[in-house]
Amino acid sequence: MSELKQLSSSEVRQMFIDFFAQHGHKVEPSASLVPVDDPTLLWINSGVATMKKYFDGSVVPDNPRLVSSQKSIRTNDIENVGKTARHHTLFEMLGNFSVGDYFKKEVIPWAWELLTSPEWYGLDPERLYITVYPKDQDARKIWESIGIDPSHIYEDEDNFWDIGRGPSGPDSEIFYDRGQEMNNVDVDDPENYPGGENERYLEIWNIVFSQFNHTPEDTFEPLPNKNIDTGMGLERVVSIFQHARTNFETDLFLPLIKKTETFSDNKKYGQSAAEDISFKVIADHVRAITFAIGDSALPSNVGRGYVIRRLIRRAVVNGKKLGINDGFLYKLVPTVGEIMESYYPEITQNADYIASVVKSEEDRFNATLNDGLDLLNETIADVKSRNSDLIDGESAFKLYDTYGFPIELTREYAEDEGIKVDEAGFDAEMKKQQNRARNARGNTKSMGVQSDFWINVQDESEYVGYDTLVVDDAKAVVVAQDEANVPEAQPTENPIEVIFDRTPFYAEMGGQVADTGSIIDNLGEEVGRVVDVQHAPNGQNLHTIALSKALKNGARYKLVVDRARHLKIEKNHTATHLLDQALRNVLGGHTQQAGSLVEQHYLRFDFNHFGSITEDDLEQVERMVNEQIWREIEILTVETDLESAKEMGAIALFSEKYGDQVRVVKINDFNTEFCGGNHVRNTNEIGIFKIVSEAGVGAGVRRIEAVTAGDAYQLLHEREELLKQSAEVLKAPQVKELPRKIEALQMELKEVQRVNDSLQSKLTSQQATDVFSNIQETAKGTLVAEQVQVNGMDQLRQLADTWRTKSISDVLVLAAVVGEKVNLIVGVSDDKVKEGLKAGEIIKAIAPAVGGGGGGRPNLAQAGGKNPAGIEQALSQAKEFLA
């Protein structure tokens, strides 16, 4: 057997990419973990997830051969992380892909060459095993033809990749034999084979031969273009080259584990199985947290933000198990950056921002954790008071959902008190939440069925809308009805789709909506209206037309864009660029575009930002945009190669894919961006820019809506009218007098409130004299127990403060009806507290009488209830408690 190479994780990754690049593959950069235009995914969860648009035929790639190392997140089995050798939330998937180009006879020999050639991975062929689909004898024959021992090839019915509707097909899995010394089952165990449940044979690569469409009718039809989709888990392969028993003993995780050791209470990895799990959970989770925040996802209570929050909380709890009680996760972010520097330098570049987000969430959770412990203690006390030994699932889920308490933590605390947790009930509540999240993502299928019609349309179409909004002699080269090319289309209720050889109509892209307008025949009559324009799979502008007359394939027509609408869109698009840059300048370089919409009458801009935006910052952004408009800057557009554009400092969006030639829009030295949209020639054409609203719309995503030109004037005019109406109502002689009038009204209101508070205080004081005069004797001390008339719990506390200051009795119990609810407060003197009497125990004994519950400190406790009729009983029970 040949000696195993010693490769770092960065070397393993780069070698894979270099191999396929040498075989004509285009290197696709690792896409953002946040899916773009894909409502079916919460996260990018595989290499092929970023290639779906190529495989379903909605887009034809420039190069049908692609290779990538794609960062991915999966959280469907988060509870197993740290407990198994290879479960991760964040992982990298190495993959090579063919979109209708090569197939089995090319990809199988390439896979074998990469794995076994001394120039590449150089793995021992004797340690490699293959599985194939029994009906896929073609694949088996190819594997045998390149010299693989037939005894190393296994047939397995499970070797068929199918996710429902969409591309599917047989696959071949490749396993590496790590030796019996790495195994967790005996040699004669029935699971001891490649593909079985064992640790000896490690699956390292899956090659999918995507050759069928799984149709809605549940049949499997041959694809018009056969594809290759492969996936090699980086973490698994690295564990082989680094002789690691698990993925965690590799250079992808060990530096994080070693760093965590320095924060712990003298804990060391490898000393305790239970503590090792905590080390692994922390190392795994901080990688996922760091990359997710780096890709502009932020902690929240919904969607992917909830996943980040859950991972941070699980990591913090596991840190506490290692004796780490202060914030520490944020200190691990630079280590993640160091590990990933070679392929993901952006982590180090944004480390300060990422760490600040993690620290904020850690601090928040550590504070919440104490509140959660209080609630958990109250819940346990309530269970005991009912002579029960079970925390119900709803209460356990509240601890999890509100305070971030993992169920295992609740279980541990409960077990210490001899109490169990209804985990079935907890799971039911969790399922309800998962269903809500799933419904929020929609029911769109994960990958569409290929349509061979538009994929195979190769007719060229030139977009000329940058220079003109009218084309006099455009030829209709494709006229389609029901995805069939027809010689002539007649008017029907349904629009048709047409490709012209030249067009001034912009196809929707980059947030800018499509142009609309008219199709005119040689008689000067309107044939139809263009209602939408999208890109066909091969990039042509595909016009959706509502016909009013017949339209002939091959005929020539005059194409006229709605000029007034188009010019308004141009103004809003250029204003969007100005807004994007102003936000970066004012809020910081971490802000990134998270989406945009450029319409005729307004623009909408979504961006990533952690926290709210002050009015001063918003005003500064608006002023900065208008200053660029009033500077009357000429807009420069340049078509150049990608590298030259980057050297110009052009801002690129992670959601966009750029070809070798790109279009750059430059607004003097203020802003330079990649953009294929339409823009004004000079910023003065925008006229004026006005922000309409700013708000949060998701986890760490803010949204600004704004208007320009005539729409901005209309907005300002409407606001002026509102000011005039307000001045009239407040009897201000001029609008400018409004602030003074409002200030005077506020002063009057404060004075009325002060007088009201003074009167209320006097009433409370008078009531105290009456209440405290009725002192009762009990076996455990003197008691004042009365119902009072107050406005709320604050005034009850005032009475309790007066009682304590004057040492009126040993115990105080007050009740009040506020609205339809009951407020209870119990006070115990310090001397009685020392004797073992606790306010919290009294409140728990009497609160059920008013239909409520509560708790608090030994010397003061409070409760709420919904049954005012039970007040007399509660006061009576207080006296009985002291008997």
Please give a structural write-up.
- There is one protein chain.
- With 883 residues, the protein is of the alpha+beta class.
- It has five domains: 9-252, BirA Bifunctional Protein, domain 2 (2-Layer Sandwich), CATH 3.30.930.10; 255-441; 461-561, Elongation Factor Tu (Ef-tu), domain 3, CATH 2.40.30.130; 566-721, Threonyl-tRNA Synthetase, Chain A, domain 2 (2-Layer Sandwich), CATH 3.30.980.10; 772-881, Diaminopimelate Epimerase, Chain A, domain 1 (Roll).
- Helix content is 38%, strand content 24%.
- Strands 1, 2, 3, 4, 5, 6, 7, 8 and 9 form a nine-stranded mixed beta sheet that branches.
- Strand 27 (689-698) and strand 28 (701-708) form a beta hairpin.
- Helix 6 (254-263) crosses helix 7 and helix 23 crosses helix 24.
- The protein is globular, with a radius of gyration of 35 Å.
- Residues 440-446 have low confidence and may be disordered.
Q: Major sheet, described briefly?
A: 9 strands, mixed
Mean pLDDT: 88
Number of domains: 5
Low-confidence stretches at least 5 residues in length (pLDDT < 50)?
A: 440-446
The 3D shape can be described as globular
Tell me the CATH topology of the largest domain. Answer: BirA Bifunctional Protein, domain 2
Estimated share of beta-strand residues: 15-25%
What fraction, in percent, of the residue positions are helical?
A: 25-40%
- CATH top level of the largest domain is Alpha Beta
> For the CA atoms, what is the radius of gyration?
35 Å
What distance lies between the first and last C-alpha atoms, to the nearest angstrom? 86 Å
CATH architecture of the largest domain: 2-Layer Sandwich
Our count of helices gives 24
**Total E-strand runs:** 34
Q: Please identify the structural class as seen in this structure.
A: alpha+beta
CATH homologous superfamily caption of the largest domain: Bira Bifunctional Protein, Domain 2
